[in-house]
Amino acid sequence: KSQRWERSDRVLTGVAIDSPPNRFGIVVSSFFRWNWGHTVLRPSSIWSYRNVYTYMYVNSVDHEGSSGTSRSPGVAFLRTSNDPPPMSETRHQILKEAEQQLIEGGYSALNFGDIAETLDITRQTVYHHFGDKHDLAEAALDHYRREDMRVLNEHARRYAENFPALFRTVLRGLWSDLAEHDFRGFCACVEVGTQADACPSDLCEDADAHQRETLTLYAELIRNSQEAGTIRSDLGAERLAREALALQMGIGEMARIIETERQADPPARDLAEQWLARIEGPNASSGSSETDA
């Protein structure tokens, strides 16, 4: 597979060897600088690391110089260990379907046969990508956590000093998630974390870690909002963060039990607004519009 390298003045070349069972990656790389058709070799580096997927895209690149056009052999782009590796479309679809099952029923609802039937593939295909139920649940939960925190961090950047506006935005997203899942669930971590008897302990710990991460972010945003005057400064940030998350989860559970947005929305909205009215500071405003919603 090839991919055009746009920055021809500096390229990274190398080879990647990946052993699937233990995912040991050995990368030998060298930096080259192309200047008027000449090559300067920079010191090589060797890395070895575990549990990292390594990918390389190789392509030839033409370089215009005083001596004419030269071609660099084996120019490569290496994905670093901090980036999630590209995945096949089938693997991505399996992960998304597994997420749906976790959100709507937790670990106990995860079923290879149902996933294969929904995606019109064989069970063997699912097992090819994920060795067992635990592997699939772990990957799906990790994928869910990453995406959920990505969205939440986007809200945090937008409403860095206005937690009430952020919380209203989060609740609108909650209703959207409930509607998407026909009010059968709204959060994979909630479902997994409340199935301690049926779920492996490490997955329950991952689900709890996600809630703690959310609490930490909420507390930080609340402190920023207190400094900006959008939340009362005489209230404890950690306590307010716990109240916010409890209210968020409680509204989601209430809506799932009632199973219709029309009946659940008014009381839920009233609960949220009553809580926000109690904590809002003198500079508070919704910070959003119907267009944003």
Average pLDDT, rounded to a whole number, is 75
Distance between the termini: 41 Å
Order of helices and strands: EEEEEEHHHHHHHHH
The helix content, as a percent range, equals 40-55%
Q: Poorly predicted ranges (pLDDT <50, ≥5 residues)?
A: 1-64, 69-83, 286-293
Query: Care to count the β-strands?
Result: 6
**Rg, please?**
25 Å
Q: Report the total helices.
A: 9
Q: What general outline do the C-alpha atoms trace?
A: elongated
Provide the β-strand percentage band: 15-25%
Class from secondary-structure proportions? alpha+beta
Assembly state:
single chain
Largest sheet: 4 strands, antiparallel
Observed structural traits:
four-stranded antiparallel beta sheet; two-stranded antiparallel ribbon; disordered C terminus
Explained architecture:
The protein is α+β, with helices and mostly antiparallel strands and 293 residues long. 52% of the residues lie in helices and 18% in strands. It contains nine helices and six strands. The strands form two sheets. Strands 1, 2, 3 and 4 form a four-stranded antiparallel sheet that branches. It has a two-stranded antiparallel ribbon with strand order 5-6. A hairpin with a 2-residue loop joins strand 2 and strand 3. The longest helix is centred in the last third of the chain and has 28 residues, at 201-228. The radius of gyration is 25 Å and the shape is elongated. The model is unreliable at 1-64, 69-83 and 286-293 (pLDDT under 50).
Describe what is shown at a glance:
The chain is α+β, with helices and mostly antiparallel strands and 293 residues long.
